[in-house]
Structure formats: C-alpha cells, structure tokens
Amino acid sequence: MAAALATLAVVAGCGLVGGGDDDVAAPPAATESASPVAEEPEFEPITESPTPEPVVTTTAPKPRKTTKTPKATEPTQPAFWSELPACAHYDKTKPVAKKTVKKALKSASARVYWRTEAPTLKLNYPLVKAIAWQESGWQTNIHNCDGGTGVMQVMPDTVDFVNNRFGLQYDAKNYKDNAYAGANYIAWFTRWAGQNYFKENYNLSTSKCKSHTSWCLLNVVISGYNAGQGAIEAAAETKTLPNPEYVAAVRSLMSRCECDQF
Asked: Lesser CB count within 10 Å: N end or C end of the chain?
C-alpha cells in the first residue's frame, strides 16, 4: 500500500573404555607314580610375563574455530495483512492465484518506465515482489482502511497521480493494472529521490546500502512507498528513515520470502 503497512542443536556423545584382567593359567597338578623313583631335580617354573595392556593414544583435539558474534537483527514491521485491522476487508471477487500474480509482478518490474529522462533507471523483481508481499501477501481482493487496494495496496490518489502523470488508465481493481501502477509509482519515486538526494544516481542495488535502514536510494524508495513523499522530505535533513521497521521488513523479504515458493 503506498500506505502504513512483514534451529541449532549440538549433540554430544561420550564413550566408555573398559579393560579386563588377563587370565593366568594355573600350573598342572602333580600325579603320584606307582613305584618309587628317584626324585627328579626341581626346576623353577617358567612363567610368562603378563602382556601389558594396550595404551590408547589420542590425538590432541584441534582448537575450535572462533566465529564472529552475529550482528543483532534489525526490528521489522509485521505485514499489514498478517494482522488485519478490523476496518480492513476482502471483497467478494475470487482471489487470483499467487503463481499468476507472480507473473504480473515480474512483468511490471521488468518494464522500463523512464526511457528518455532516466534510461538507466531500472526496477528489479526482488524489490517489487517484496513490497507487494509486505503490503498484501499477494492477495488481489484485500482492502485496507485507508483505501489501499489489491496486490500493491495502491491508494486511489496514487493511481490517479500515475494515470494523469503518464497518460495511463490503470484500474486498481484489476490485478495486472494494480501491479503496474505500484511498480510505476516505485519508478517515479526512484526518479524523484535520485534527483533530489542522490545526484541523479538511480542505482537500486543493495550494495549501495550500509544496512537495511541506512540512508541510501533503495531504502529511501522503500520508505517512501509506505510513508509518502512528504515524510521523506521531512527526514532528508537528518537522513533518518521515518519507518525503519517497514524498510527492514521489505529488505529481508527481498532475499528470503515465503512468496518464493510460488
């Protein structure tokens, strides 16, 4: 919506090593002869030295590799649709299959929206799919309290702006138009933010961001989609995103999303 509103087990085992005493055979018992005979000289009995028990040798354990302490994860905002407010609702239309929605989002993200004024400006599917999942869970018949509609939760004013600005006739109730309207607005916001705050650099790569909530073009665009242009203008002086939890949620979904199964 361009509106408000996203296991390690260590097993240890131990073994017991046991040893047993060697059995020593007793010397045979003497028997008496029937007739007396001269005494035979006595000999010292020869006994075998006990076999020493084997000594188990072990290799000294290698030191464990130390691992760096993982950075604390940035807090994220639950997806609007996962905690649906009372005033939100579903319409009576049959929801479009998510595999079909995925095709529409891929198509919308692949389109070039600024061929002349900003030909280097290109959207990417991970960004578009993540915003759409955070906004609606790819549900085509969901409506928010503030008027956000469908897959991209586009607002009526946003659709009107895109249609008037680019001479289009998008209908937010149509899931394809909804995807294109949302992607078009992302492209427009990228152009606007790139011109005003990033020296006309329109690179939406994650490599340009120090973190999920730092002030970079990608994060600003995600933030603006949710909070609006005015909120970004107000935050520009301090370069602090007005909705870091929303941005962190979308950034996480870009790399790992339940929607990837469709």
From this structure: C
Is 189 buried (19+), middle (13-18) or exposed (0-12) by CB count in 10 A?
buried
Specify which residues 89 forms β-bridges with: 143
Quick one: CA torsion of 239, 240, 243, 246, rounded to 10 degrees? Answer: 80
pLDDT digits (tens, 9 = 90+) for 186-218: 999 999 999 999 999 999 999 999 999 999 999
What's the Cα-to-Cα distance from 112 to each of 137, 168, 180, 189, rounded to whole Å? 25, 15, 11, 14
Which pLDDT does position 64 carry in this prediction? Answer: 55
**Residue 183 to residue 150: CA distance in whole angstroms:** 13
**What is this structure's pTM?**
0.72
Q: Where are the domains of the chain?
A: 88-261
Alpha carbon distance 173, 46 (integer Å): 105
CATH of range 88-261; options 1.10.530.10, 3.90.550.10, 1.10.287.990, 3.40.190.10: 1.10.530.10
**Tokens of residue 114, six digits:** 């600024």
Question: What number of other Cβ atoms are within 10 A of residue 72's Cβ?
Answer: 6
Give the Cα separation of 160 and 158 in Å (integer): 5
Q: How far is CA 235 from CA 224, 242, 249, in A?
A: 10, 6, 19
CB 221 within 8 A of CB 204: yes
Angle between helices 125-136 and 217-227 (to 10 degrees): 30
Q: How far is residue 112 CA from its own chain's centroid?
A: 28
